[in-house]
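User: I'm writing a tutorial on reading structure tokens. Could you give me a worked example: one chain, its sequence, then its tokens, then a sentence or two explaining what the tokens reveal?
Assistant: Sure. Here is the example chain.
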Amino acid sequence: MEERQDDVLLGKRAKCWPVELAEALLASPLSWGPPTYALGIGYVDDPQREDQSDGFIQLAMCVDGAYNRHSEAGQWANPILRQVEVEASYEELSTQDLLDVVFLVCRGERFCDGLIRQHEPQLRAILQEVVRRIHADAPPVFIVQKSDTTENR
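And here are its predicted structure tokens:
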């Protein structure tokens, strides 16, 4: 059986995918999402409590272009999140698809406070799988996209 190339396109500002940051996020029990705010109620979560939202957002934003790859991005990502939630195999998904889900949930937080925290168990499982793949014998290939000032490397 022929093995397929597992390419991941990085955002134009990313020089590499920060596996060390992913491992640090996974190692800490602190939440990945910012405190949830509900209009008319106020903060649902303690805004003074420490979290890892800055690191998670930094990691998620390294992969860009999900909107171009997936029309109806939210509808595309939801079945994958459900698949991860029920612990069904997602080996058939590319690393790009897994990281696109991370990116889309992160971006969705702008419109739906608490989205990252709601899906954090699935996001942790996805990042664990991505880190596992990176340390595998045939890791994904991360491709730096050209920007106006840098060449593809």
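What the tokens reveal: Strands lie at 7-10, 37-38, 42-43, 141-144. The longest strand covers residues 7-10.
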